[in-house]
Specification:
This protein is an all-alpha fold. The protein has 19 helices and two strands.
Length: about 425
């Protein structure tokens, strides 16, 4: 059964409103249990963010690549419960076996276990470089945890590099073909993993070259960030800023944009996909640049500079690129809920018209702005999520607000319900 065979159980906009409230409450409860410093576990930000990020990526593999195989014919809610359980098992396996134990055989920077083992044995000390010693205490500090952060940067790249083949290329070159599941899904997983490693090597590995080379010693095996002269910072937050906006543009395309504007390209694959890909990355970079250059107009930038880490030397460019990523993240909830649970509601007769495209685009930006205001100005990040570093002024909050973690966590109940539970119980068969 496809999404088109469903109808909202209580009509619109009631179904969308009820769904939105339900997802918010579920996300808030689970946040309290596992991440809120006031809760029983308090795993904020690491390793919590690593697990939730991998949950989304593995869920994408299950749903977008494998078509929910082999559970696609199970009745709800059994299918959703089983797929969720499988997701959690796979997440543990990918992190602790694939990254830590397999890739970790060759790449220590991708294995938190390897790094901690070396540090505990005193093998990361660099006596010839005064003061540059990677200690166990530094590695397990929640502000560091370099192995876990390296896995998260892989997931960041994967949020774009895995789904863009489906969205922009129509699964070319895997489709069209007569492959069935799981062969088709595994072939797509292999192809997209190759692309992910390509982007990861170019955009992420140089940053870890700087961490382990410039900060803790001398690196000849890793290159250093090549983007320093372009962005004004060698930090990976430059990648976060424009890559996160590219992810937003990518997922806006099949959601509230209903494949516009790339649907006007009347070319066969891969040419249509290549042009769409270039347009998506370019538009993402442009939006990130707008955020970087205009954020100082609404933020007390001099006060922000006062609260920056010492390593920034009073220059806010690293912060502004990461904040651009945070701004992008605030649009996730509006465009996903609008498409999946409000059915692209506009009040216009033709949902696929350019007028509807413009209406939803402006609406998402306005709702994203309200989301931003709620998190930072109303300070939901402090009283709602328990982020202790948001107890101060606005300038202190935005420096380390970690809003991306909350926005991604919020969408997990929504995506799980849409992907695994087929919108149960908020939607019902159209013939019911």
């Amino acid at each position: 059964m496809t999404v088109h065979a469903l109808k909202p159980r209580w009509g619109q906009p009631a179904t969308g409103i009820i769904s939105c409230i339900a997802f918010f409450l579920i996300a808030w409860l689970v946040w309290f249990l596992f991440s809120d410093p006031r809760g029983p576990v308090g795993a904020f930000p690491y390793p919590f963010v690593m697990y939730l990020a991998m949950m989304i990526l593995v869920g994408l593999w299950q749903h977008m690549f494998l078509g929910d195989w082999p559970f696609q014919d199970l009745p709800q809610p059994a299918r959703g419960i089983i797929e969720t359980a499988v997701n959690l098992v796979l997440v543990w396996f990918v992190i602790h076996i694939v990254f830590y134990r397999i890739l970790g055989l060759g790449f220590n920077f991708l294995s938190q276990v390897n790094l901690e083992t070396l540090a505990a044995a005193g093998r990361t000390a660099l006596p010839e470089v005064a003061g540059k010693t990677l200690t166990l205490q530094a590695l397990v500090n929640p502000a560091a945890r370099f192995g876990e952060r390296a896995v998260v940067t892989f997931v960041l790249i994967g949020f774009f590099s895995y789904p863009f083949v489906t969205i922009l290329f129509g699964k070319w070159p895997i489709r069209p073909s007569d492959l069935t599941q799981p062969q088709a899904g595994l072939a797509e997983l292999g192809w997209c993993s190759t692309l992910t490693l390509f982007f990861y090597t170019i955009l992420i590995v140089p940053f870890w070259g700087a961490v382990y080379g410039q900060v803790f010693g001398t690196s000849y095996g890793f290159n250093l960030p090549w983007w320093s002269g372009i962005s004004g910072t060698g930090h990976v937050h430059w990648v976060f800023g424009w890559w996160e906006w590219a992810i937003i543009v990518l997922f806006m395309t099949p959601n509230v944009w209903r494949m516009k504007p790339w649907s006007v390209i009347n070319l066969a694959q891969p040419w249509k996909g290549l042009i769409s890909l270039a347009g998506t990355l370019s538009l993402g970079y442009l939006l990130a640049l707008i955020c970087v250059n205009f954020a100082p107009f609404w933020l007390p930038i001099q006060e922000v500079i006062h609260h920056l880490p010492v390593a920034d030397k009073g220059i806010p460019i690293r912060f502004l690129w990461y904040h651009a990523a945070e701004i992008a993240g605030f649009t996730l909830i509006p465009f996903l809920i609008w498409h999946h649970y409000f059915d692209d509601l506009t009040g216009l007769r033709d949902k696929d018209s350019w007028g509807a495209f413009g209406f939803r685009t402006v609406g998402v930006l306005l709702l994203g702005t309200l989301n931003y205001v709620f998190f930072y100005y109303v300070n939901f990040g402090h009283w709602g999520l328990g982020n202790h570093h948001m107890a101060g002024s606005l300038s202190e909050r935005v420096v380390a607000g970690e809003s991306l973690i909350w926005n991604f966590w919020w969408i997990i109940p929504l995506l799980w319900n849409e992907w695994f539970f087929h919108k149960w119980p908020f939607y019902q068969p159209a013939t019911h």
